[in-house]
């Protein structure tokens, strides 16, 4: 029976776009009923353990597997030579970037298991498979490695110096990519004419991703169908399917990816890893599924790390404080091998985001992407965007201090104005919308900046130093990609959204259901989300780059339009009217000018009941649709942080935090707040806590939670959050993405606040108590 219009209206108010609807996934996850990869066990599965190098750099002289193979329960031990002989391909980077002279960057071949040299501690050299995990671990410890150790290098700047140990013999100077963007002559001219130049060396420290769920996978080859199935946490089943097919040397149709719940990724699980080929090789030979679950110690060593940039940054200003040019010259550590997006973060990622919200006529970025004997560096929440905003905001605060200009006034003076939209930046992007000064003013008011002096005085009475910092940011979301928006009306009366994006903590189900509910009036509780099965997908850009709602949201809207077109034809038959006389509104098809109609769910029920239709009328409301492109959007905001410093211990506490964001149309503010909180905490963690340390010979000294600090709930304050929404003009929903913005605003705001507390003394991240204590004492 159709719901009356008032009921549908009330439902839309409760579950439509803009409402704070709780995540549909939460009841299952909070009851401990989620299904992560390690929760899955297949019949007759065996267990794999990886043998990893304990040497950072060395020549493999011998791998003795005889003792391991003879141990109880061991089903096999395989090395790189055996995998290579079986024809498995190398792992590939997805984003090649040309050198400054137009030549290709260096892309050394990386096979799944090292055969000639090991290049970082954790480099996998063999896979052991046994009946139980314990048996596989015992056997892995019995594999004898003879490795001739070589000198190692772990720092990008040092790795590019003459005489540094070569990670690859055929990569001179360890330079993977010599990147350049900008007009050097014009930039040099601007700097020469500048009334003031601010210079800083700025380091974005290396991060261990520390996802809640360590990497795990099950590889299963079925000889009856000649198909390969991989169960693994990832960021997009469709893309991983094609990458895995290339790795295994098979056709994409032979590969299936299945993904359940994913306990975090932040970019790290976005591509194939070396362990996967070994699982399939063993499965094929043994005729059994093979399961591998990494331990936390292995994750510290072998998961892709994030960040690790070291730049000399310069900002040129005229006598009034107007920006003339910004210039970066530095190094980005790519680790021992190219990861999924390779050199993107320290090259185009930084370049595209450096201008942020400011009129900056000229930009020049020179970066050397350097191989070192460390874990590979991949995308990590923001992938170059937080770094660029951090560099720019630190330059601005420092310039304001050096020139005697208020740091807020300097920002306002250089903001791009609304009337200048669309605005083409010096990096080639074109902003479609934004009200940056109004947004900053709202953040300052909400943060009660006028009352800061009193709060600073109160901190001083307790012997604490207090500082205030602003992080004005803008980020460029991921570029256009195809995305699937399938809609399927199920036999039980549910409606399923089929998407090529993949939820690894974002809460897609609720947000996507809100879009569909608003568009078609389908009851919210009847909407399901299908993701993570590559066999059901005809396209999919995956989740990453803060683009999911722009891509999947647009796909759902377009697919809904196709449902309406089909429904008008079918409803015309049901209502005995011409399709041209049928209109759709609030979940009902009605004859124009009458009250005769039928609800979309009732129409679907009639189809399931065998409704007779004339030739040419669609027999289903189901749609399989691909959205062709979701252009980049430009989320932006202003974060205001206040910190207290204990001068006796160097301990820094973030005591007040305010953020005002322009995410365009906000589909679900509850989820957006959660994403923002998470990003801010990760930014605070990088700024104050997370410190990776390698020894001179490449040993990872901060390889566990005993040595590597993450913030706890008591280390962060409650957040004040508000919006200043200026809908995007480049996508149908007007959304701008929000998943990574928290990092982009928190890195600069926290560090600017700390520098303010220290009286203007620059300090690098992570600002650990030891470093702060030393800075206070000169």
UniProtKB/TrEMBL annotation:
The keyword Cell membrane does not apply. InterPro entries: Ald_Oxase/Xan_DH_a/b (IPR000674), Ald_Oxase/Xan_DH_a/b_sf (IPR036856), Ald_Oxase/xanthine_DH-like (IPR016208), AldOxase/xan_DH_MoCoBD1 (IPR008274), AldOxase/xan_DH_MoCoBD2 (IPR046867), AldOxase/xan_DH_Mopterin-bd_sf (IPR037165). One of its GO terms (molecular function) is iron ion binding. It comes from the Bacteria. Keywords: Molybdenum, Oxidoreductase. The keyword Metal-binding does not apply. Residues 31-151 form the Aldehyde oxidase/xanthine dehydrogenase a/b hammerhead domain. This is Xanthine dehydrogenase family protein molybdopterin-binding subunit. It comes from Vineibacter terrae.
């Amino acid at each position: 029976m159709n719901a009356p219009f008032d009921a549908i209206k009330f439902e839309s108010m409760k579950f439509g776009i803009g409402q704070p609807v709780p995540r549909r996934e939460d009841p299952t996850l909070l009851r401990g009923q989620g299904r992560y990869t390690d929760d899955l066990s297949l019949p007759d599965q065996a267990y794999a353990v990886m043998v990893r190098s304990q040497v950072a750099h060395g020549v493999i002289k011998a791998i003795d597997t005889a003792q391991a193979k003879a141990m109880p329960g061991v089903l096999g031990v395989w090395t790189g030579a055996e995998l290579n002989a079986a024809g498995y391909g190398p792992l590939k980077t997805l984003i090649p970037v040309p050198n400054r002279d137009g030549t290709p960057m260096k892309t050394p071949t990386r096979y799944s298991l090292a055969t000639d040299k090991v290049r970082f501690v954790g480099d996998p050299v063999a896979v052991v498979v046994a009946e139980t995990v314990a048996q596989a671990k015992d056997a892995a410890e019995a594999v004898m490695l003879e490795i001739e150790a070589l000198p190692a290098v772990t720092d990008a700047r040092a790795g590019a110096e003459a005489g540094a140990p070569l990670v690859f013999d055929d990569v001179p100077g360890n330079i993977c990519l010599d990147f350049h963007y900008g007009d050097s002559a014009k930039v040099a001219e601007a700097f020469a004419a500048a009334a003031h130049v601010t210079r800083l060396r700025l380091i974005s420290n290396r991060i261990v991703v520390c996802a809640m769920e360590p990497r795990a996978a099950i590889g299963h080859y079925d000889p009856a169908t000649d198909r390969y199935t991989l169960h693994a946490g990832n960021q997009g089943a469709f893309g991983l399917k094609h990458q895995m097919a290339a790795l295994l040397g098979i056709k994409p149709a032979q590969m299936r990816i299945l993904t359940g719940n994913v306990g975090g990724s932040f970019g790290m699980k976005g591509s194939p890893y070396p362990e996967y080929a070994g699982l399939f090789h063993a499965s094929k030979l043994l005729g059994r599924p093979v399961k591998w679950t990494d331990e936390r110690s292995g994750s510290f060593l072998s998961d892709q790390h994030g960040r690790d940039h070291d730049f000399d940054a310069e900002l040129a200003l005229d006598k009034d404080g107007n920006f003339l040019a910004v210039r970066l010259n530095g190094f980005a550590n790519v680790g021992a091998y190219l990861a999924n997006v390779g050199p993107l973060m320290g090259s185009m990622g930084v370049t595209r985001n450096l201008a942020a919200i400011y009129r900056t006529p000229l930009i020049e970025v020179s970066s050397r992407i350097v191989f070192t004997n460390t874990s590979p560096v991949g995308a990590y929440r923001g992938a170059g965007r937080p770094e660029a905003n951090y560099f720019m905001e630190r330059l601005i605060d420092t310039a304001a201090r050096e020139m005697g200009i208020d740091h807020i006034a300097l920002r306002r003076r250089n903001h791009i104005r609304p009337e200048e939209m669309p605005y083409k930046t010096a990096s080639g992007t074109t902003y479609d919308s934004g009200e940056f000064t109004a947004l900053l003013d709202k953040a300052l008011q909400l943060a009660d900046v006028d009352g800061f002096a009193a709060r600073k005085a109160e901190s001083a009475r307790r012997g604490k130093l207090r500082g205030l910092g602003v992080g004005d940011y803008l980020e460029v979301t991921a570029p256009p990609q195809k995305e699937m928006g399938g809609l399927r009306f199920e036999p039980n009366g549910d409606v399923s959204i089929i998407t090529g994006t993949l939820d690894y903590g974002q809460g897609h189900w609720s947000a996507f259901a809100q879009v569909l509910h608003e568009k078609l009036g389908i009851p919210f509780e009847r909407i399901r989300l299908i993701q993570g099965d590559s066999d059901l997908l005809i396209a999919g850009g995956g989740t990453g780059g803060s683009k999911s709602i722009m891509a999947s949201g647009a796909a759902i809207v377009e697919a809904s339009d196709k449902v309406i077109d089909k429904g008008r034809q079918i409803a015309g038959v049901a209502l005995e009217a011409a399709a041209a006389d049928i209109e759709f509104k609030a979940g009902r098809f009605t004859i124009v000018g009458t009250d005769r109609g039928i609800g979309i769910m009732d129409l679907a029920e009639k189809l399931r009941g065998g409704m007779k239709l004339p030739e040419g009328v669609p027999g289903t409301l189901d749609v399989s649709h691909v959205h062709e492109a979701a252009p980049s959007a430009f989320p932006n905001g202003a974060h205001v942080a206040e910190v207290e410093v204990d001068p006796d211990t160097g301990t820094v506490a973030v005591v007040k935090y305010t953020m005002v964001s322009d995410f365009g149309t906000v589909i679900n503010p509850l989820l957006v707040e959660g994403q923002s909180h998470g990003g801010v905490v990760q930014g605070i963690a990088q700024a104050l806590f997370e410190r990776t340390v390698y020894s001179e010979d490449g040993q990872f000294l901060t390889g566990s939670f005993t040595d590597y600090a993450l913030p706890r709930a008591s280390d962060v304050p409650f957040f004040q959050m508000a919006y200043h929404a200026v809908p995007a003009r480049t996508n149908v929903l007007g959304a701008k993405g929000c998943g990574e913005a928290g990092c982009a605003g928190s890195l600069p705001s926290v560090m600017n606040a700390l520098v303010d507390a220290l009286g203007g003394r620059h300090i690098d991240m992570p600002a650990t108590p030891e470093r702060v204590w030393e800075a206070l004492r000169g």
